[in-house]
Structures are given as C-alpha cells and as structure tokens.
Design goal:
This protein has five helices and 15 strands. With 254 residues, it is α/β, with parallel strands linked by helices.
C-alpha cells in the first residue's frame, strides 16, 4: 500500500560529517518492511522531484520511521534544516524489501548503504553478523548495530578503525560464513560481495543504489541491467525503484 501524506518531524540530529538522522511520524510505518524506501518532497516549490531515502528504522508502536541520509545536493541540504514540528510531504513505502530468511545471516553496508541494514538486522530471525564499511573514523550507527547483532566488523578505507580495506577483506580476514548475505552500498562493493557469495555458495541479496526520479517505476530513469527480460520494458532491464531496490545478486549485472 503506497501512501502520500504530510509527515511530522519528531527529531533530527547530525550523526557524522554531512550525515543526518531524521525521525518522522507517518502512517507509512504501518506498511513498511526492511529494505524499502520513502520519497521525501522538498517544501521548496522550485524542486519538484522527491529524494528517495532508505528506511533505517521502523517503530510501529510509536508510529515513526527513521531515515538516515547524506547531504549531496540542494534538496538534501534543505532537509538538513528541518526541525521538530515541521511537516514535509512523503510517499511510501516504495520498492521491494529484503526477504527475512536464514539461521545465520551477514548484513553488509557501505557508506550511506549502512542505514537500511539496521532494521533488517533487527528483524532477521537467526544469528546476525554485521560488516560495515566507512571512509574513515567518522562512523555512524555502529552503537545501534552493536545492540542488535552478534558480531560487528568494521572496515575503513584509511585503516583508522577496524581493518584497512573493504568489507570483503573484513569477511575474509574473519573467516565469515553464513546461510545468506544481505548487502547495500556502492556498486563496486555490491559486485565484490556478490562474487564472495558466489565463491562460497551463499545466497545473496543486494539493494541497488541508483538515481531515482519518480520512485514508482514510470519514468525508467533508474534501470539496471538484468539477466532476464523485463515484462515492462521488454529488454534486459529492471527498474530499481519498482522491481527492486532489492534483488538476488544473480538476477542483475553489477
């Protein structure tokens, strides 16, 4: 069920350089699952297109959704000035979320792909290990992950925290194995994680990051290459916003 409404800002805080956490009161929470996203519209009438942002936490008891976003342009810069009590138009939940499976799962996040893995880690039925990748020691959400996972491993580009290298380097160094791997982050990271999963015969789901315009699959602005013909476009494409953002790693070309 897709809802478009005015959400109320309950809380906003800065988590790291250019990274903000925004908590909204919205009825979208009643239908949201891990891995989905919402589109947030700017109150600036000159910016017509919404910004798609992954859902970080779902609290149905309090009727709230939490999103964590990075300021990357004028639209998200406007969001960073929202304060308690402000109202902002949102639409969602959008896309397909993660299937909850496996007795032993690894959740992998890189950069702004870290936030959507938090609610997933909370809802997965078995033992969960988290592997998170950051540029440097300007970390975010690590304390929240430590509360809900069995183990947390961190990789940083500069080696300032955890191991120096990639999330796959961290998985190899710690001899991690699982029934299923879930990943969200930049495409090179997803490609490496998918290769690791294939090498180790582990089922793998990836959440794709693409530039989205409409968020509902109409504009075809966020297609990715798939290994099967799409019923909508009749070519080897998938719409990330509508058919994804979550795919089996073997479904798409990374």
């Amino acid at each position: 069920m897709k809802i478009k409404e005015k959400a109320v800002v309950l809380w906003q805080e800065k988590l790291a350089e250019g990274v903000y956490s925004l908590t909204l009161e919205t009825s979208i929470v009643d239908h949201a699952i891990p891995g989905q996203f919402i589109s947030i519209f700017s109150n600036d009438g000159s910016k017509l297109l919404p910004r798609p942002i992954s859902i970080c936490e779902i609290n149905k008891d309090y009727g709230t959704l939490r999103v964590v976003y990075r300021v990357v342009g004028a639209g998200t810069e406007k969001f960073s000035h929202l304060k308690m009590g402000d109202k902002i138009e949102v639409m969602g939940p959008l896309g397909n979320g993660f299937p909850l499976e496996g007795r032993n799962a690894i959740v992998v996040g890189g950069g702004i792909g870290v936030p959507p893995m938090l609610e997933l880690a909370k809802q997965l039925p078995g033992t969960v290990t988290a592997v998170m990748g950051y540029r440097n020691n300007d970390l975010f959400l690590t304390e929240e992950f430590e509360k809900v996972v069995a183990n947390l491993f961190i990789a940083t580009d500069d080696g300032s925290v955890g191991i120096r290298g990639t999330v796959v380097d961290a998985m190899r160094e710690n001899d991690l194995v699982a029934d299923v791997i879930y990943a969200c982050g930049p495409k090179p990271m997803l490609r490496a994680v998918a290769d690791f999963a294939l090498e180790n015969q582990i089922r793998c789901y990836v959440s794709m990051e693409e530039r989205m315009a409409c968020g509902v699959g109409a504009c075809l602005g966020c297609v990715c290459k798939s290994k099967e013909v799409d019923d909508h476009s009749h070519v080897n494409n998938k719409r990330v916003c509508k058919d994804g953002p979550v795919f089996l790693s073997t479904e798409v070309v990374l």
